[in-house]
Design brief:
mainly beta, 7-stranded mixed sheet, 13% helix
C-alpha cells in the first residue's frame, strides 16, 4: 500500500489544539483502500491512528470525489464518532458518504 497527497489539520481536544495528519492509502494496483488519520502522542502518551476503509461495493471508484473531499468526510466521521483524542489504533470503520465534509482548515503537506 502507498499514500499520496497528505494533509495536516488541527482539532481542539480536551482544551488543547492537536495536530493530525490524514492521507489516502492506495493498493499496489492504485485502488483507494482507506483514509488514514494519525497523530503523534505527547512524550508521555501513545499516538493515535484512525483507519477508515473504503467499501468497494458502496461506490464506483471512477465516480468518487477527490482526496481532499474524502479526507474531509473522514475527519467529520471520526469527529462525530468521538474517535479523536483516544490513544491507539481504530479500525473496522467504513467511510460514510452521507456525512457532510468537515469545514476546518486542511493544509496540504509539502506546500
Amino acid at each position: 500500500m502507498t499514500t499520496s497527497t497528505g494533509y495536516e489539520f488541527e482539532l481542539a481536544i480536551e482544551g488543547a489544539n492537536r495536530r493530525y495528519f490524514i492521507a489516502p492509502v492506495y493498493s499496489a494496483e492504485g485502488r483507494l483502500q482507506q483514509i488514514s488519520i494519525s497523530q503523534d502522542g505527547p512524550p508521555d502518551q501513545p499516538g493515535q491512528i484512525i483507519n477508515i476503509d473504503m467499501d468497494p461495493d458502496a461506490f464506483m471508484q471512477t465516480a468518487m470525489p477527490g482526496p481532499e473531499v474524502l479526507s474531509r468526510i473522514a475527519i467529520e466521521q471520526a469527529r462525530q464518532d468521538n474517535l479523536f483524542g483516544v490513544a491507539g489504533c481504530h479500525e473496522g470503520l467504513f467511510l460514510d458518504f452521507a456525512i457532510e465534509p468537515w469545514e476546518g482548515e486542511l493544509t496540504p503537506l509539502n506546500s
